[in-house]
Amino acid sequence: MKNSGWKWVLSKGHSSIDKELRLLDAFQKADPRNFHAWNYRRFVAALMKRPDEDELKYTEEVIGANFSNYSAWHNRSILLSNLLKRKAEGYFPKENVLEGEFELVHNAIFTDPDDQSGWFYHLWLIDQTVKIDAPLLVSSWPSHGFNITLQGNKCLHGSGLCVLNSTLPNTGTLPIILYFNQAVEGVNSSTVNVKSELLSGDLVWKPLSTNNSNNAQVWVAYLDIRNLEVQLSKTYVVEISLGHSKGIVSSSGYDYGHPSRVTFELCIQTAYTEPVEQQEGKSNSWKDDDFQKFDHLQESDPICSADQVTSEIDHIPTTSGRCEEAVVNEINQFRDLLSEIDCKIGKLTLARLLTAVDSLPSPRANNMVNTEEILQLYDDLMRLDPTHYLYYKDEHSLVLLRQITSSRDSILPYCHYKKTAIEAFAGYVCLRLQNLSLSRMGSIENLLWVQTLDLSHNQLRSIEGLEAMQLLSCLNLSHNKLGSFTALGPLRLLKSLKVLNISYNEIGSHSIDTRRYLCSSPLSHTEEFAWDQFEIFADSIGISAATFWEPFLIFQSLNLTELDTKGNPVADENFRSFLVKVLPTLKWLDEEDLS
Amino acid sequence: MVNCRCLTKVVCGFDFAILLHFAFLAASFLLRLVVMVTVCNVSFMAMFTFKMGELVTDKHVKYILSVEKRKDDFESVVMEHLRMNGAYWGLTALDLMGKLDVVDVNEVVSWVMSCQHDSGGFGGNVGHDPHILYTLSAVQVLALFDKMDLIDADKVTNYIVGLQNEDGSFSGDMWGEVDTRFSYIAICCLSIIHRLDKINVEKAVKYIISCKNMDGGFGCTPGGESHAGQIFCCVGALALTGSLDLVNKDLLGWWLCERQVKSGGLNGRPEKLPDVCYSWWVLSSLIMIDRVHWISREKLIKFILDCQDKEKGGISDRPDDAVDVFHTYFGVAGLSLLEYPGLKPIDPAYALPVDVVNRIFFKK
């Protein structure tokens, strides 16, 4: 039964619209999941200009007859979206409408928790309740209120010393990172106003997108301090304001929410000088023995966490009390359900609701109160539904990271400094997150300050989101589950990365690459293959583009001084000679001195 | 190609004159094949038979070749118009099993070219009207045989460009049916012949996004219910145009991973029966958005292997049903995506073996 045939019949006047609708009613009673019929119904309804409200009533009838009708729930979501968006009479405020919808879908879920028909509609309702349509700034680096002192090519915070390991010495630039709650486009010098005596011209804002898109959740600009005619020891204020003029827009078409301002201070004590080539005797160590925990954090320590103020906002958005009320009501409903039936959808929905409550932007002092319960729910789900074990594990990792990065107290146990630092200072902070069973990264918005990161001995299959960590210079990913070169895609955007350990992963053991289309490449038309540069290596070591394009794409854009690849099936002699050729700045490969 | 009706049989018929020649070739090849396959597969199979059951590769090869011989029964006649799709399914499955060389390249290629029209589009069979569905299959078959130089890229491009509508959508043919399947087909086909820039990619992407639903999935037209086949087409098109950042991977990933039912098989949408063809559509979508670890690979492998006819060869939609080339291809392609040993890897977006895709993009 082809849609186009029916439409042709109607358009030729071989049937009346009313008759078609009656025919459809009969057909749909006989076959309620037939999507051709639903498509045709949409076509007929549009032709006769049938109001969305009437069609909504129809879906309610269908659901009333049998709630196990995903097609009806789907159509309901389309109609309701339209009515809510245009704030139709009787469909505003949305909270009233959503309340009724929750009641409706409870019938479906509570009657038969194993029937999936209502699951996705319910999740959509939660999203409609808590979502913030407008893009907003979630975090930045430097953070609001930060105090940075530059001494030559070193950077200090307040009275503590923090060396910007490679960003400053090697590039002479300071990154300014803006992290939004969703992907946006239109971040440029007219939509983001940066005011400072330090600036001579406009800053150029770049989207941090792994597939070369001009739409990104994180944007960066570089403040060049090399040729500044500055007054030494003077404190310069840098003020970044956004949302004062239109232009920053989300992919769904919403404009940046509220005018906001991020202000930080910069003081230059000694002029920037080109760094002297340092002869370091040994390669970077990641061993436990070489690190010491901080036993407390000072105000001046360059560590950020979620509980800090993001920016000055002219009008602080708080979620309506009704939103929180609705979520809490749902939590109670699902606790009731679970007291009667130990079901998967009950536990999963409860975990999601508790997570939503913890993430609500309310002025309450204690966020993250539900973390223990949420983690327990995911543990239960891993046992209850082993088929989807790794889905629950990923969610578990996200919740854990959210908790760890939520406050200075919670992140303290993971902050270390090197006992044998090159120079005698309190040292830089290394964030050590090993052995946490992390299968996925998250909360990167709280990790923009990190320069040295140890993620070894976890179960990471991807490092999605790491491209935002513009200060990162040393990264340990050893003993994880990275399965392809394309999984390293985010690293291409890290200008400061010098030391990388990817030993004991799974690169070369998989025939199927699951990151292939999430990394920019010729296959997705997001990048041209650099044939000229490739041929320079190809001839000397006898390799073909067909087999080496992936490592070439990744490593050619990195400027590493140290790399460890052993323990990956792909790391053979041929591969090592390729690496030496494609990374001219490399000094250490697989813990061997190359000089 | 992505018509979700389960077809019972598909015929890649050949002329009677070639039939005899082919039968003789097939017979002699088959003998060598069985010996070769047995020797090579013993080591692989020894490892896996214990745990997961066995893929009877040689039987499937035999089945696919036998289907090509049949042309006079009722089903073959009824399915004559989509022989081009059938050729793609059968030949890609053979290539994944490493047995493409049992087929006569020249016979197939000349038949494919004889299906092309002046407009540049290909029909489903000789003398049949052109349609975008068969145009893609034709180009894919020629790519399998590394005969890209036979394609008049400009001609094919003109045909496809002519099918793009104002709103960015694509029609299947001159009669105008619009469906996101055709968006995928247009984008995939033009990508293979390096002419993607000839259509309005931005509008094409915008139209696909307008078909995104509350569950993160995609339908055939705006407002259409999410369906695994359509999701594969939309995700594939977005992958090939570098637009996967517009997909909510966690939301869609959860919807897709919940297609796996108790038996280990995958269905196409909630509360429907599992079917081997979804081992391709759901699985390749999960792979493109890197969420395939959210299902149980072992259970799905077992389901697909249980759908084999171990006596006569071929794979069916679910265990103990009748087999056909359509499901044989999707079963083998699904197993390839699951890294089943002994099969060549397949690219989830181009739906062609990875070495074929590498040849298209990385050979100067």
Automatic annotation (TrEMBL), chain A:
Transmembrane segments: none annotated. Its EC number is 2.5.1.60. GO terms for molecular function: Rab geranylgeranyltransferase activity. GO terms for cellular component: Rab-protein geranylgeranyltransferase complex. SUPFAM superfamilies: L domain-like (SSF52058), Protein prenylyltransferase (SSF48439). The keyword Cell wall biogenesis/degradation does not apply. It catalyses: geranylgeranyl diphosphate + L-cysteinyl-[protein] = S-geranylgeranyl-L-cysteinyl-[protein] + diphosphate. It is an enzyme of class 2 (transferase). Keywords: Leucine-rich repeat, Prenyltransferase, Repeat, Transferase. The keyword Repeat applies. GO terms for biological process: prenylation. Coiled coil: none annotated. InterPro entries: Leu-rich_rpt, Leu-rich_rpt_4, LRR_dom_sf, Prenyl_trans_a. Catalyzes the transfer of a geranyl-geranyl moiety from geranyl-geranyl pyrophosphate to cysteines occuring in specific C-terminal amino acid sequences. Belongs to the protein prenyltransferase subunit alpha family. This is Geranylgeranyl transferase type-2 subunit alpha. It comes from Arachis hypogaea.
TrEMBL record, chain B:
It comes from the Eukaryota. One of its GO terms (cellular component) is Rab-protein geranylgeranyltransferase complex. Residues 56-351 form the Prenyltransferase alpha-alpha toroid domain. Its cofactor is Zn(2+). SUPFAM superfamilies: Terpenoid cyclases/Protein prenyltransferases (SSF48239). Gene3D superfamilies: 1.50.10.20. Pfam families: Prenyltrans. Signal peptide: none annotated. Belongs to the protein prenyltransferase subunit beta family. This is Geranylgeranyl transferase type-2 subunit beta.
